[in-house]
Amino acid sequence: MKRPAGASIEHSYEGKVLIATPALRDGVFDRSVVYICAHRADGAMGIVVNQRASEVRFSKLLVQLEIVKEADAIRLPRRVDEIGVLRGGPVDTGRGFVLHSADYAARDSTVQIDGDICLTATLDILRAIASGAGPARAVLALGCAGWAAGQLESEMLTNSWLVGPADFDLLFGGDFAHKYDHALALLGAHAAHLSFDAGHA
Length: 201
What we know:
The chain is an alpha+beta fold.
């Protein structure tokens, strides 16, 4: 999987999370936490990490994709169904993106986002997970979030997002109900302190 072809930019948010402010309360990103996988001059792409596709089990997806036969699903590694399936965003919702720890890499298809986090969007990683040879930590996102050139920068100017650090609990933990507050806590912030005018002097 190749990075976007656009030139790098001075203030890239790759490897950071965007935390939706109340300015996005009425849209699809209400209370979203988005991990930014790529941010270049021609646009940005990320994964919403706090919206679980609760009706989808990872093992069932492996069967649907014919990576394992239904009769063999019972023999999958126990931790397979501990892998969260996310609603990764409104773009490419029929496509899967695996965000994972850097202890796994598929040649020509894994992108290293920072030293600890990678993204792979091919079936190779699903086969590896099914066989017990996948990464130690992973989530599968159905769809992603995307911004055209200049769009994310414009949203930042309207105080739509806060920018914060990511940690493994935020990206891979199972406590989805509290991930938004956890992301804010990493910034030293609290949801009650946010307003539509956040960021204005």
